[in-house]
Known about the structure:
Layout: E1 8-10, E2 13-15, H1 28-34, H2 39-48, H3 51-61, H4 65-72, H5 82-104
Antiparallel strand pairs: 1-2
Amino acid sequence: MGRRLPAQPRGGVTTVAALLPQEFADLEPFAAEWCLATEPERFALRLASSMDTMQAFYDAITPRAEAAMTYLDQYELDALPPEALNLMHLLYSMIMVSFPVECWRQPRIPDSGASQIDLVIAPVP
Length: 125
């Protein structure tokens, strides 16, 4: 899945196609980075992100999470339009950063050393 559509010139102004539904335009600055389709991608981004970056993302999306879930409930899971699917992926990323932000204050699980669990089969929403 591509991250962004090419910019389209319009009368000297460049526009970029939105990744999220219009109702969630305020979250668009986070969409390109955090709309990731798989758990391994979200986990890798969490490990590569600073706490400041995760905190900013978490602070922006958490107050909008309930509205996002309500928005997504209007669709069947297998019939989500692309913008709604991106919104769902953004919520999944919020979940991925919730423990580091709320509990650990670091991207990795404390006292876990170099241990890692790889997801072999991912559940499909």
